[in-house]
Amino acid sequence: MQDAPLYYNFISLGGLFCLLALARLCGLRRGPTAWRTLAWGVGLQLGIGALVFALPAGRGGLWAVNAAATKLLEFSRAGIHFLFGPLGLGPGQEGSLGFILAVQALPTVVFFMALTALLYQAGILQKIVRGFSHVFVRSLGTSGAESLGVASLIFVGVESAGMVRPFLPKFTRSEFFCLLTAAMSTVASSVLGVYVITLQGDFPNIAGHLVSASVISAPAAIVVAKLMEPETGEPLTAGQVVDPALGKYGGYMEAISQGSMDGVKLLVGIVALLLSFLGLVALANGLVGWLGGLVGLQGLSIQGMLGWLGYPLALAMGVPPVDAGAVGSLLGQRVLLTEIPTYVELGKLLAGNGLVYGRSAVVASYALCGFAHVASMAIFVGGFGALAPGRMGEWSRLGLKALWAATLATVMTGCVAGLFASGGATLLGLGQ
Fold first, then answer.
1. Crossing angle, helix 124-135 and helix 144-153, to 10 degrees?
2. If DSSP states are collapsed to H, E and C, what string results for the chain?
C-alpha cells in the first residue's frame, strides 16, 4: 500500500474540530458548554494518540500489546482446535479449509469472558478500572459513578452495569447518556479477539491498534456526550472516585465456570444477531433494489445509501478521496450490520487491495472499533434499563441520540489516528 501525503494528517485535525462543533450543535439547547471536559477530553485523546503513534516508547508499547494479545489468541485457539479439528485451522495453516468466522473467531469470546472473570476475581481488573476512573474524575470533571462505568466499558461490555448498579436509579440524564454513548463507542475485550482474527492476516499489528482505539474512544465518548447532553443536574457522586466492587464469585473455579457460561450466552447472542440482521438487511435490500429499479435506480441498497452518509465522515477523518467511498460505506454498514461483518469486509478490502493508502486502513480500523449500531443500542438500553426499571421510558428515548453520539465519538477516534498516522505500511505491520 502507498503512503499518503502529509497534508491528510492536517485534514484529520480539522475534521476533529468539525466533529466537536457538530456535536455541540446537536445539543445546543440542552445547557452550557462543559469547557473543562472538552479541553481535557481532547487533550487526553491527542496525548494517547501521540504516545501510540509519534513517540518511540509508545510505538514499542503498541507492538508489545499487539504481541501479548496475539499470544493470548494463540492460547484461546487450543480449545477451538480440540473441538473443531481442521475447521479450526486458520488460513495459511496446513489442512485449513479457509477462514470460517463461526468456528475460528467467534468461540474466542468464551475464552476472553472466562479470562475477564478470572481477572475480576483476582482484583486486577478493578485496580485498572479504578485508575482510569480516577483520571476521568480529576481531569474531565465527570461524576465518580459515570467515570467508573465508562472506565469499565473499555474492558467489558454490558456486564459493566454491575459495577455501577447501586447508582443507576439515581443517574442524571447526562450521566446515563454519557454511559450509553461510551458503551457504544468502545469495545469489550471479549469480542476484541474476533476482530483481530478477522484482520490479522492482512493487518499484523491490528491487536495493538484496536486496544489503543478503545482507550482513545473513552474520553472521546465523554466529550461528545457532554456536548450533546450537558450536565444540568446534581450527580450523586460528583467529585468522588467510586471504588468498584471486589470479587463477585465464590472462588477462582466459579469465576472461570461462570465466565465461560456468560461467554456462551454472549456467543449465542452474537450469532443470533448476525443471522437475523444479515437476513433482514438482505430482505430490505431486495425491496429497496426493486423499488429503485422501478424509478431507474439500478443496484440501490441500504448500505449504499448509508455509505453516502458515511462518505463526508470518511473525508473528515483524513481518508484520501480515492478510499473515502469504501471507508464511508463501512461506517454506514456498521450501523445496521454490526461491527463484525464490517471488519470482515475491511479484511476483504485489505486482502484484495481494495484500499490504495495504508493510512485509510489504519483510520478505518480505529473508526470501526465500537458497538455503534442498532442492535447494540437495544442491548445496552435494555441491559442498563433492567437495573433501573423506573427510568426505562426516559432512557429508551435517548437511544438513537446516543447511537449518533457514539458514531461521532468513533469517527473522532479515527481523526486522532489520522492526525498521527504516517508510514501506513509500517503501521499495518508490513515491512517492519
1. 120
2. CECCCCHHHHHHHHHHHHHHHHHHHHCCCCCCCCHHHHHHHHHHHHHHHHHHHCCHHHHHHHHHHHHHHHHHHHHHHHHHHHHHHHHHCCCCCCCCCCCCHHHHCCCHHHHHHHHHHHHHHCCHHHHHHHHHHHHHHHHHCCCHHHHHHHHHHCCCCHHHHHHHCCCHHHCCHHHHHHHHHHHHHCCCHHHHHHHHHHHCCCCCCHHHHHHHHHHHHHHHHHHHHHHHCCCCCCCCCCCCCCCCCCCCCCCHHHHHHHHHHHHHHHHHHHHHHHHHHHHHHHHHHHHHHHHHHHCCCCCCCHHHHHHHHHHHHHHHCCCCHHHHHHHHHHHHHHHHHCHHHHHHHHHHHHHCCCCCEHHHHHHHHHHCCCCCCHHHHHHHHHHHHHCCHHHHHHHHCCHHHHHHHHHHHHHHHHHHHHHHCCCHHHHHCCCC
pLDDT in tens, 46-66: 999 998 888 877 778 878 888
Q: How far apart are CA 135 and CA 149, in angstroms?
A: 13
The three cell numbers locating residue 292: 429503485
Whole-number pLDDT of residue 123: 84
Evaluated on CA atoms 367, 225, 50, 66, the torsion sign reads negative
Q: How far apart are CA 160 and CA 13, in angstroms?
A: 32
Whole-prediction pTM value?
0.88
Residue 432 to residue 425: CA distance in whole angstroms: 8
- The mean predicted confidence, pLDDT, of the chain is 85
Max Cα separation, the chain? Answer: 65
- Mean per-residue pLDDT for 138-150? 91
Q: φ and ψ at 363, to 5 degrees?
A: -60, -45
Report the candidate in 338, 355, 332 with the shortest Cα–Cα distance to residue 274. 338
Domain boundary assignment for the chain: 16-428
Read off the pLDDT of residues 166-186 as tens digits, 9 standing for 90 and up. Answer: 788 888 999 999 999 999 998
Q: What type of residue is 347? A: G
Q: Is the pLDDT of residue 405 over 60?
A: yes
Let me know if 56 is exposed, middle or buried by CB neighbors in 10 A (0-12, 13-18, 19+). Answer: exposed
Distance in angstroms (rounded) separating the CA atoms of residues 76 and 190: 11
